[in-house]
Amino acid sequence: MRFVAGRIVTAAATLLLVVTLAFLVLELLPGDPAGIAEDPALGPAEQARLRAALGLDEPPVRRYVTFLTHAIRGDFGVSIGRHRPVRDVLLEALGPTVLLAGTAMLVSLLLGWALGTRAAERPGGLADRAVRTVLPALDAVPPFWLGLCAILLFAWKLGWFPAAHMTSAAPVSGAWGTFVDRLVHLVLPVSVLALPGAAPVARHQWSAMRRELLRPWVRAALANGVSRRRVVWRRAVRAALLPLVTLVGLGLPALVGGAVVVEVVFAWPGLGRVHQSALLGRDVPLVLGGLVIVAGAVIAGRLLADLVSMWVDPRLRGGWSGRR
Amino acid sequence: MKRHLVPLLLLLVVILLAPLAAPWDPERSLDPALLRLVPPATPAMMLLLEDGSVLPVASGVAALSRGTRPFSVEGGDVVYARGRRIERRPLEDFVLDPQGRPVFTVRWLWAGTDGFGRDLLSRTLFGLRLSVLIALGAVLGSSLLAALAGLAGGLAGRLLDSMLAVTGDALLSVPRIVLVMALAVAIRPSAVMLAVVLAATGWPAMARLVRGEVRRMRASDTVLAARATGASAWRVAFVHVLPEALVTLAIAAGLRIAPTILLEASLSFLGAGVRPPAASLGTILAEGRELLLEAWWVSTIPGLVLVAVVLAISGVVDRFQQRMERP
Predict the structure, then answer these.
(1) Superfamily of segment(s) A86-321
(2) What's the predicted TM-score (pTM) here?
């Protein structure tokens, strides 16, 4: 269990660094955080009293500790633009983001895995060409522009999928109706996120499978009469699967970054959209809270990916049980 | 010939010559009413003014091939239509031909115009220049930081090494878009600030590579020999160790250029990057988003240019990587 504890400590340290950074941003802000200094109507005595009330007259270290203890409790103050606690706004937005990014991650993983395997199985085939040309090309397209093109083509010209939002304006009936409604709204944003995201997965799976298929055991299995399909899809795939988990963990920040942009394009009510509107409105508590929440989610996701790969492959554990 | 270099060279020419190649001022409206949202490949008839500027009076193939002049001279004034309104302006403002009539010219607006009537081709050229310059500045800056951090981590003590590692891990695990958006609240980003912020947040991955190379070199006979002949620690670091890591660093930096261009575009699109009136490709795309139904070209043309540039750069970098990694 020591390796788990080590990982958790590292993750906590990382999060602490992010919170510290958020505090530094707050300190960097021009003027007084409360905007007191700019108000000419207040006399010096009044100002001093307000500062004391807000805790602004305390030394920076003290303020940092206060900020930290509040952040740990998830308390980032009240949003300036929305007049609600930052925590409530962010918690509300967290669900949609997890839904979007999680679905996109699954789709890109499955798609990249299948295409990469197929491309290695049959060089020069359709999947091979897709892995070599189409996916890298999609990776070169900015996500927001891909989103705009998708909206223009599939939502407005063809009318297949809704152009924006997570739910229809018209009420839908029943659990099944809600599910279908969500699904239909998910198609375009998830595709925009997942297709480019599948590129590195496919490339990785392709090269791993190529290496695996050259191993002597493959030839032995084929000579034994195991069908080629079975060798590729049942046996070699399993051997090449593990690095994908690591890859997902490493790609998580980029995925969430992409989700932020895609949310803005598709008016998805998630963290990305909250973050952007907070940025445009200079809603400082909300921006800092958003930074910490997003960072926390990504760090937790990476931790999970690490733990899963350690659980699957004891060699990665290090310390006690792993490495000779 | 090295054909894969052609797109990149073209790009360099465009970037260097953008001020000359752009037909119009990217930040000035040609005409907010008549030439608003003109589609690509539209001719516009313009009268030449004495002060060197032009006055558009008609646009579109249909309007220009009608045969009738869209302006007339009446009693010392030039009369022309400005949308539905009829306007007049004294004749002495205009460049006149020997017969005393105003001189006109027909200019093609190959990429159309945006919502303010600004020439989209010029805007795209200047936007491209700004995007690429920001990305290059950011990548250069972060390479420099990565070289220093890698050297320090690989050669200095363990404390510094692990501090750098933790900081780098933290930067790597926060989505850069979100981080820069948060920073953009504190510092109003200009093009230069954006490059600085991107450089400051982009070094960890490369620093890790450099550190690996440095570690490898530290145990090598070269360094041992240099130490034995009495070279100082600084000399060992910068003369014997760093050059070995440069190829790795150069490849990594080259690979980062295209993603950095995309990142900058995303940030400008979200409003955390270059702000109007300055425009990078991302800013133009953000403006085009509002006009997607009315005017597809405002977002499509800079988008296509962006994709082409990213592909051109990746192509060259891939070649470079293949060549350098093959012994």
Answers:
(1) MetI-like (1.10.3720.10)
(2) 0.83
